[in-house]
C-alpha cells in the first residue's frame, strides 16, 4: 500500500468512529485508507504502549474490500480484547501461557454483530491473564503503559483497549467488565466506558459468566459512539438468562435528547471505610454542581453497603466458575492446566474454586442475589447516581501483582474500585466519563449509574456532561 498522508492521519485521529463511518458513506475516504491509517498509527505509537498484542493486518485488509458502506460503523478500524470473545481466525489466549496457541475457529454472537456493523478488526488488545486484574500486566505479553503518564497503570482488565483508544490508534474497541474492567481503564486513560445492564448483550454461545456479573461492550472517545455501539450489539437471544427492557427508539437517538429534570444522588464516601483522594472527590463534586446547574435536583446519599463483606462473597463465588472454565478448556488444550501454565494468582483462584463445596457456592450465589436487590433498591429513588470511578489516582505499574500467591491479600488491594463492583452485582448500567484532569494531566473518571435497563437516561445525561465539561480535544502525550 502507498504511504498514508499526514492529512488523512490527522482526520483519522480527530474523528470518532461515527465520524469516520460517515466519511466512508460519503465517499470521502475508503475503508482501505482507514485500515492503513490505523496500521500506520499502531506501528508508530504502540511500541511505546504495548496495547496491541496481535496485529491482524492481513485480516483487516481482506475485510476492507467487503464492507457494507451503509453499516453504522462502515470501515471503522477496531480492536477486540484478548479475553473470551471469539473472532474466527484470530488468536484467543486470554493472555495465558496455557492457551497461547489457541486460535478461534468460530464467531461469538457479539462478534457476528460487530462484523455486521461494519467494524474491521485490525488487532487484539492486551489484557491481564483471565481478566482478573484492574491493571494490564500479563506475563505472556508484558505491561501496557498509560499514554498520559509514564509509570502508572492504564487500568484493567480492558487496559489495552483503553490505552489504544486514548492514543487514537483506533476510535473504539471492545472492553469487558467483571468488577470494573470497562470503567476502571476508561477512568485511567481518559475515555468513555459503559458497563451496560445485565443481559443487554448476549453471551451466546456461552450461557453465562459469573451469574450475570460479567458484561461486554466497549471503550470509545464519545458518548454517541458508545450509544451507537450499544445499538449494534444489544439484544438477547431466546433462552438467555437475563432480558432487560428495550426502549422504543435507538440509544443513539435517546442519547442525543436532553432529559427532563432528574433526581441525582451522589457519594464521595467509599462504602468500605477507606479514604478518597482529593482529585476523585473534586471530580464528583464538580460534576454534581454541573448537573445542578443544568436544572437537575442533586443530593448527597451514601451507600449503606457493607462493601468488604460483599467483595469477599463476590470474589469467592467467581472462583468456582473460573475453576470450572479451566476444567472445560482441557478438551481444547488437550491436557489439564497445571500450576506452571498460569500466573500464581490465577492458580490460587483455581485452587479455591476447586475446594469450595456445592452448598457453600449455592449460598454465595444467594447472598449475591440478595446484595444485588439491596443495592438496586437503595438507589431506586435516583434517576442517576454519581460516584468516583476510582477513589484514588491510577496506581503505579506493579501495584496489582498477579505473582501474589495469597488470594485474599491480592483481592484486598482492590479498594480503589469499591464503587465499581457493586453494579456488577446489581446489574445496573454504569458509565465512566473523563470529566476531570489533575494539574499534571492525569485523567479522573466520574461514574454515572442508572436504574436497571435504563441506559437511555445514563447516555442522555452523559451527552449533557460531554457538552458541559468537554474532553474531545484533550490528548495524552503519547497519541496521534
What distinguishing features does this structure have?
480 residues, alpha/beta, Amidase signature (AS) enzymes, 11-stranded mixed sheet
Describe what this molecule looks like in 3D.
The chain is 38% helix and 12% strand. The chain starts with 5 loop residues before the first helix and ends in a 12-residue tail after the last helix. It has 480 residues and is α/β, with parallel strands linked by helices. Helix 5 (109-116) links the parallel strand 2 (77-81) and strand 3. The model has no long low-confidence stretch (mean pLDDT 98). It is globular. It has one domain (6-468): Alpha-Beta Complex (Amidase signature (AS) enzymes), CATH 3.90.1300.10. It has an 11-stranded mixed beta sheet, with helices on both faces. It contains 17 helices and 11 strands. The chain has helices spanning 6-14, 17-25, 31-45, 57-64, 109-116, 159-166, 183-189, 223-233, 251-255, 278-293, 307-328, 330-333, 344-355, 358-379, 407-411, 422-426, 455-468, and strands at residues 52-55, 77-81, 120-125, 172-177, 192-195, 215-220, 263-266, 297-300, 384-388, 430-437, 443-449.
Write the layout of secondary structure elements.
Layout: H1 6-14, H2 17-25, H3 31-45, E1 52-55, H4 57-64, E2 77-81, H5 109-116, E3 120-125, H6 159-166, E4 172-177, H7 183-189, E5 192-195, E6 215-220, H8 223-233, H9 251-255, E7 263-266, H10 278-293, E8 297-300, H11 307-328, H12 330-333, H13 344-355, H14 358-379, E9 384-388, H15 407-411, H16 422-426, E10 430-437, E11 443-449, H17 455-468
Helix pairs in contact: 3-4, 6-7, 11-13, 11-14
Amino acid at each position: 500500500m502507498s504511504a498514508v498522508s499526514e492529512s488523512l492521519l490527522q482526520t483519522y485521529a480527530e474523528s470518532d468512529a461515527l465520524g469516520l463511518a460517515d466519511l466512508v458513506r460519503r465517499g470521502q475516504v475508503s475503508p482501505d485508507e482507514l485500515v492503513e491509517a490505523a496500521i500506520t498509527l499502531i506501528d508508530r505509537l504502540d511500541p511505546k504502549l504495548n496495547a496491541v498484542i496481535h496485529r491482524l493486518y492481513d485480516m483487516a485488509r481482506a475485510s476492507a474490500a467487503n464492507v457494507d458502506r451503509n453499516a453504522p460503523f462502515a470501515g471503522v478500524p477496531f480492536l477486540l480484547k484478548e479475553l473470551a470473545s471469539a473472532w474466527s481466525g484470530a488468536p484467543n489466549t486470554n493472555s495465558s501461557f496455557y492457551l497461547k496457541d489457541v486460535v478461534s475457529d468460530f464467531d461469538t454472537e457479539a462478534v457476528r454483530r460487530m462484523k455486521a456493523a461494519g467494524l474491521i478488526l485490525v488487532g487484539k488488545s492486551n489484557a491481564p491473564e483471565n481478566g482478573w486484574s484492574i491493571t494490564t500486566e500479563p506475563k505472556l505479553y508484558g505491561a501496557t503503559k498509560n499514554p498520559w503518564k509514564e509509570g502508572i497503570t492504564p487500568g484493567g482488565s480492558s487496559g489495552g483497549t483503553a490505552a489504544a483508544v486514548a492514543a487514537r490508534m483506533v476510535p473504539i474497541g471492545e472492553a469487558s467488565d467483571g468488577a470494573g474492567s470497562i470503567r476502571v481503564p476508561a477512568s485511567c486513560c481518559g475515555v468513555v466506558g459503559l458497563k451496560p445492564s445485565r443481559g443487554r448483550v448476549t453471551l451466546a454461545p456461552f450461557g453465562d459468566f459469573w451469574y450475570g456479573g460479567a458484561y461486554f461492550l466497549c471503550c470509545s472517545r464519545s458518548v454517541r459512539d458508545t450509544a451507537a455501539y450499544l445499538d449494534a450489539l444489544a439484544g438477547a437471544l431466546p433462552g438467555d438468562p437475563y432480558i432487560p427492557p428495550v426502549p422504543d427508539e435507538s440509544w443513539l437517538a435517546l442519547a442525543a435528547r436532553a432529559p427532563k429534570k432528574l433526581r441525582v444522588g451522589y457519594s464521595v464516601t467509599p462504602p468500605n471505610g477507606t479514604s478518597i483522594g482529593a482529585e476523585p472527590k473534586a471530580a464528583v463534586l464538580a460534576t454534581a454542581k454541573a448537573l445542578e446547574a443544568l436544572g437537575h435536583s442533586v443530593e448527597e446519599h451514601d451507600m449503606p453497603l457493607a462493601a468488604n463483606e460483599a467483595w469477599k462473597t463476590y470474589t469467592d463465588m467467581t472462583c468456582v466458575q473460573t475453576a470450572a472454565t479451566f476444567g472445560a478448556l482441557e478438551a481444547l488444550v488437550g491436557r489439564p492446566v497445571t500450576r506452571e501454565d498460569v500466573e500464581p494468582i490465577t492458580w490460587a483462584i483455581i485452587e479455591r474454586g476447586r475446594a469450595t463445596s456445592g452448598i457453600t457456592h449455592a449460598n454465595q450465589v444467594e447472598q449475591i442475589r440478595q446484595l444485588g436487590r439491596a443495592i438496586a433498591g437503595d438507589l431506586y429513588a435516583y434517576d442517576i447516581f454519581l460516584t468516583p470511578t476510582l477513589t484514588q489516582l491510577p496506581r503505579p505499574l506493579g501495584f496489582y501483582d498477579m505473582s501474589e500467591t495469597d488470594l485474599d491479600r491480592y483481592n484486598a488491594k482492590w479498594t480503589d474500585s469499591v464503587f465499581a463492583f457493586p453494579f456488577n452485582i446489581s446489574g445496573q448500567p454504569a458509565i465512566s466519563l473523563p470529566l476531570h484532569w489533575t494539574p499534571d494531566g492525569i485523567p479522573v473518571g466520574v461514574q454515572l449509574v442508572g436504574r436497571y435497563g435504563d441506559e437511555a437516561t445514563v447516555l442522555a445525561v452523559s451527552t449533557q456532561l460531554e457538552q458541559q465539561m468537554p474532553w474531545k480535544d484533550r490528548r495524552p502525550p503519547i497519541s496521534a
